[in-house]
């Protein structure tokens, strides 16, 4: 979304300021998935109140999912915020800014205008705006992302979500599923290699439910995989229920599709999954993993898990640990349940809510378990030579960071001119989660 807003603003005649002090407009883009993410935003936005005192002309906007969720309440809480804008409002950014700062900013372009709801405020004061309509048809078509430098393009193919997992705020802040036109996606991807971009990550909330004009996700993935000059293709995040045999076949047969799959499981007990309304069983998930692994034996698997979901008994939690031991994920993103106002799970009886200390203990234990499994997996990989796409310079001087096909991070010595290239690297050591290595050719030389 950040890249999309940059693109929209660039098309509207704006430059991206490198330093906050140089900016006439400051946008804080936000996430609403967990309370922790929102608390960080509150801190960040709070810091801007001082800046606004010194420079009252600066326009401050809060954009994205938290802006959508909190809306005008946020404007009420933070008097120095000029506008809030949800994920479907980005198209109107230049118009909004033109209204808020009519004199000193460039004329908006010819992008289609939308009528903007005006919030109250004394006439002599600058208006404050809330752009919070969820647009059933906004699929961001025709808007150009301004990509961050690097060899990887993050390409949204789908927005919103048709599921209603009971813990999740996403459908309420991003609306129902909207898919982009396949031909547009492909023509965008065809233009990437000329810009030095050879890795593509297809993005969607349930990316593999993609469906547009006779295209399903496996067809889209195969077409993307065959674009000239594209060397690595990934996608995130798929929903287990839409992992089809056709998709597995594309992953197994298209050499540019990375042998890596992020497949959120969320919990390892049927009762928890049922309360979460995930619409699959543990056995169903196991079966998908079995099929994937039998078609692509060395695939790297990762997952998301929520612990402390309301009603999670010790037995249910232990079943989740057992599933982690059984599947042995290469990577796992492990979260403590965070209550999101407006989601169905808030209606589960209070008596079922898990005390904070219990949830914290469960989180710490599952992290420890995952780390020990991950260390074993990665230790077994030390000594291998793997192809690494160099992403950027590491913090430690003289080092580069890259990723393997399995999406694992490797640090090794090398010149920044190598960023964007594919190198063979010998893995020499692991921290448990990441690797250090050296270039295979350097060893020979
Ligand atoms: N609390 C904790 N984790 C959550 N996630 C989504 N909603 C919540 C919540 N309310 C996690 C899920 C999802 C990931 C992106 O964030 O595991 O897969
Ligand atoms: Fe949220 Fe479930 Fe949709 Fe994922 S599939 S975005 S967890 S509602």
List the keywords.
binds iron/sulfur cluster, 21% strand, four-stranded parallel sheet, 445 residues, binds 5'-deoxyadenosine, 33% helix, 14 helices, 19 strands, alpha/beta
Characterize the structure shown.
Mean pLDDT is 92; it is low at 108-124. This protein is an alpha/beta fold and 445 residues long. The longest helix has 24 residues, at 356-379. It has helices spanning 2-11, 35-54, 65-70, 72-77, 93-100, 170-174, 182-190, 217-225, 245-253, 270-276, 282-295, 314-327, 356-379, 440-444; strands spanning 25-30, 59-64, 83-85, 129-131, 152-156, 158-159, 178-179, 199-203, 211-212, 215-216, 232-236, 260-262, 300-307, 331-336, 385-393, 399-404, 409-413, 422-430, 435-439. Helix 8 (217-225) packs parallel to helix 9 (245-253) and helix 12 (314-327) packs parallel to helix 13. Bound molecules: 5'-deoxyadenosine (5AD) and iron/sulfur cluster. 5'-deoxyadenosine binds next to strand 13.
Compact description:
With 445 residues, the protein is α/β, with parallel strands linked by helices. Helix content is 33%, strand content 21%. The chain has helices spanning 2-11, 35-54, 65-70, 72-77, 93-100, 170-174, 182-190, 217-225, 245-253, 270-276, 282-295, 314-327, 356-379, 440-444; strands at residues 25-30, 59-64, 83-85, 129-131, 152-156, 158-159, 178-179, 199-203, 211-212, 215-216, 232-236, 260-262, 300-307, 331-336, 385-393, 399-404, 409-413, 422-430, 435-439.
